């Protein structure tokens, strides 16, 4: 079994979780890390026993034997960082949100397809065993036809105008940071909406603190989604069907199982595997794709990611959120 050499670009909190998660895969090795500063890269490398540490993203391209790059930089850098790697022929797993807007996402996809290089959004939720189980149960008709999906994600973030969550220069706000999760899960189970309506509460900096979304689908289903950085929510997802309900247990974006509520029956809990943080599930899938010579994931294709980005753009237009780095007409 081939061992894949991973590199991480951007060494913040999520990079640490990804590095720890890779240790759960017997055929994965953290081979290189890149930061804006050599000292930070060296410190990270020492912590995880990484043989190569570089102090610029460009220098990562010179490290030999890198098989795939995980991009964990801030939202606003995903576009440039991904293109840098793709143009060098390096496969990319890029953190969510994939880009700041659809124009960027389309260009990232175009370059990946032109170069024939693997590219996938790092939407780890998609690869949890609980999500696979939930999709299987819904497809089997156990809860009947899904008529409504409700999902929320929220936590309390101290107000810091310069911090990444509140700073428009860093594409801040609840929507791009955590609102993408309810939006993602609704798309996964219900497909593309026919209509989207959104309202938001904005911070003094102009980014969204609360964002409430209502979606309608051709199937007759609807969805109510919510994200906030001003309150702790239950972080849950419930699918309401004509013959019962399905709840993702635990925090839905990193679910530990499902619970079925069927008429005249006791709730049935089906636990699913959840090891560590769970980032290794997406990493394992990427390696499977690379082994098969694929340039896209069959479970999370670039078309899905692009459509999700279009939904984010539509919502931002409705709530009046535009970022300073966006030129006229790009979102």
TrEMBL record:
One Pfam family here: GFO_IDH_MocA_C3
Signal peptide: none
Residue ranges of the TM segments: none
Domain Gfo/Idh/MocA-like oxidoreductase N-terminal: 5-122
Top-level taxon of origin: Bacteria
Coiled-coil features, chain-numbered ranges: none
InterPro entries: Gfo/Idh/MocA-like_OxRdtase_N (IPR000683), Gfo/Idh/MocA_domain (IPR050984), GFO_IDH_MocA-like_dom (IPR055170), NAD(P)-bd_dom_sf (IPR036291)
SUPFAM superfamilies (alphabetical): Glyceraldehyde-3-phosphate dehydrogenase-like, C-terminal domain (SSF55347), NAD(P)-binding Rossmann-fold domains (SSF51735)
Domain GFO/IDH/MocA-like oxidoreductase: from-to ranges: 132-246
PANTHER family, alphabetized: OXIDOREDUCTASES, TRANS-1,2-DIHYDROBENZENE-1,2-DIOL DEHYDROGENASE
Record protein name field: Gfo/Idh/MocA family oxidoreductase
Organism name: Hymenobacter taeanensis
């Amino acid at each position: 079994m081939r061992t894949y050499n991973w590199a991480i670009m951007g060494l913040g909190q999520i990079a640490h979780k990804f590095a720890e998660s890779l240790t759960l895969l017997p055929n994965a090795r953290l081979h290189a890390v890149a930061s804006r500063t050599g000292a930070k890269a060296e410190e990270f490398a020492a912590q995880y026993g990484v043989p190569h540490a570089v102090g610029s993203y460009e220098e990562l391209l010179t490290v030999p034997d890198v098989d795939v790059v995980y991009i964990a930089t801030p939202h606003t850098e995903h576009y440039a960082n991904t293109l840098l790697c793709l143009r060098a022929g390096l496969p990319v797993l890029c953190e969510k949100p994939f880009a700041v807007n659809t124009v960027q996402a389309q260009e990232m996809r175009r370059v990946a397809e032109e170069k024939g290089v693997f590219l996938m959004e790092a939407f780890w939720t998609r690869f949890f065993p609980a999500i696979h189980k939930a999709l299987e149960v819904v497809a089997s008709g156990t809860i009947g036809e899904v008529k409504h999906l409700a999902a929320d994600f929220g936590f309390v973030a101290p107000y810091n105008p310069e911090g990444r969550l509140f700073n428009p220069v860093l594409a801040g706000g609840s929507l791009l940071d955590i609102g993408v999760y309810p939006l993602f899960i609704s798309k996964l189970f219900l497909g593309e909406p026919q209509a989207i309506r959104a309202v938001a509460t904005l911070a003094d900096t102009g980014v969204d603190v609360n964002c409430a979304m209502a979606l309608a689908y051709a199937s007759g289903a609807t969805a109510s989604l919510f994200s906030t950085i001003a309150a702790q929510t239950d972080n849950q997802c419930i699918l309401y069907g004509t013959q019962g309900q399905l709840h993702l247990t635990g925090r839905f974006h990193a679910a530990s199982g499902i619970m079925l509520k069927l008429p005249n029956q006791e709730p049935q809990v089906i636990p699913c595997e959840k090891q560590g943080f769970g980032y290794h599930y997406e990493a394992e899938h990427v390696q499977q794709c690379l082994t098969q010579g694929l340039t896209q994931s069959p479970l999370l294709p670039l078309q899905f990611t692009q459509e999700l980005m279009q939904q984010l753009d539509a919502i931002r237009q409705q709530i009046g959120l535009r970022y300073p780095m966006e030129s006229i007409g790009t979102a």
